[in-house]
Specification:
It is built from 13 helices and 3 strands, in the order βββααααααααααααα.
Length: 353
């Protein structure tokens, strides 16, 4: 009797909306074979999430997804190459090892791992950033005094050698730049060092996001984790492999990111034009993240939200006078003995009056 076969379509939810990967598989009594990989720009989102979740729980689906992963990697571009990188796989192993060691449900494991990484890695870098910024601000009076002296010396030289105004400006800027660089070296506080936090936090965020994407879609070396994630959610998102159709996680993410942005904006009520442009750009990114978070697996949305909440807590902690003294952060002009009360008062003045 001829074997009866059916076709099952699986749509990868993490791929861009403009190109959703469709993998056709043929299931028969003799086993599963991976079919061809094509692009479908019309199928979005997956019309039958229950069918997909049920299929991913079968052993045959896990084996098939592993074989199809090689096809995707070979034909994919930079995105798939990044998702298959060593850094992303290390994040996958970190998540799996933490879950095996703690026995927490996957939603709690994602939150706990996020809190640990942000506290162990990014919080010390945030303290270091504040120390550098404090040292740079402490140098400003000395730089202003040296600039006055330099301007006087340049004017004397200009009278002696007959320099033009353009030459005077050039000599002043060149020597002032040299003096400022020497001060930065003396106090070991070059402003570029304050950007170390961004260069570490952003790649870590990307790698963790792609690791959760791989685990949620079964595109990893441990496809069985996808089955655990399918039942590892809580409350209104029981399946971490599917998006949050209620939009609670995406909207909460957007609100949290906007709150962080406004806290930074309130530090200077009279911001320059560049600062206003940067602030508005970050606000736009925060709003844009809402629909993006609504299309990715809930595991990623949980990570993004928990990461933003931890970041919000760290930002408030770095304003604490006791914590700043404990970490020996130099005082700055924006310091306050009651930072949280002042922050609330500034918010009232800006938004309610």
């Amino acid at each position: 009797m001829a074997a009866k076969s059916v076709k099952i379509k699986i749509v990868s939810r993490m791929l861009p909306v403009s190109a959703v990967a469709r993998v056709c598989m043929r299931v028969s009594s003799s086993g599963i074979s991976c079919g061809s990989l094509s692009l479908d720009t019309k199928t979005w989102p997956l019309p039958q999430p229950r069918l997909r979740a049920a299929f991913l729980k079968t052993p045959m689906a896990a084996a098939s997804l592993v074989s199809c992963r090689s096809v995707t990697t070979e034909t994919g571009g930079w995105y798939e190459s990044l998702a298959d990188s060593t850094a992303v796989h290390l994040m996958e192993q970190l998540l799996i090892s933490t879950q095996n060691a703690t026995g927490l449900p996957w939603w709690a494991n994602v939150i706990a791992t996020t809190f640990a990484l942000r506290t162990v890695v990014t919080l010390p870098l945030g303290v270091y950033q504040s120390i550098i910024i404090g040292k740079v601000e402490a140098l400003q009076p000395e730089i202003a005094d040296l600039a006055k002296r330099l301007r006087y010396e340049v004017s004397i030289k200009a009278e002696q050698k007959g320099w033009t105004e353009k030459t005077c400006r050039y000599q002043f800027k060149r020597n002032l730049k040299r003096i400022v660089s020497e001060l930065y070296v003396r106090d070991n506080c070059h402003p570029f060092k304050a950007s170390v936090l961004v260069w570490v936090q952003l790649p870590m965020w990307v790698c963790m996001s792609l690791a959760l994407r791989n685990l949620s879609l079964g595109a990893s070396h441990s496809p069985s984790v996808c089955e655990e994630l399918a039942v590892g959610g809580a409350l209104w998102f029981p399946d971490l492999t599917l998006p949050d159709y209620t939009w609670v996680l995406p909207v909460s993410l957007g609100i949290t990111n906007l709150l962080i942005t406004e806290i930074f904006a309130l530090r200077r009520l009279e911001a320059s034009k560049v600062q206003k442009y940067v602030t508005n750009f970050i606000r736009g990114i925060s709003i844009l993240m809402i629909p993006i978070a609504a299309t990715v697996p809930s595991s990623m949305a949980v990570y993004w939200l928990s990461s933003s909440l931890v970041g919000l807590g760290h930002n408030l902690l770095l304003r604490s006078p006791r914590f700043r003294r404990l970490c020996r952060i130099p005082p700055s002009r924006g310091d306050s003995n009651m930072p949280y009360r002042d922050l609330a008062a500034a918010a009232v003045r800006k938004y309610l009056k």
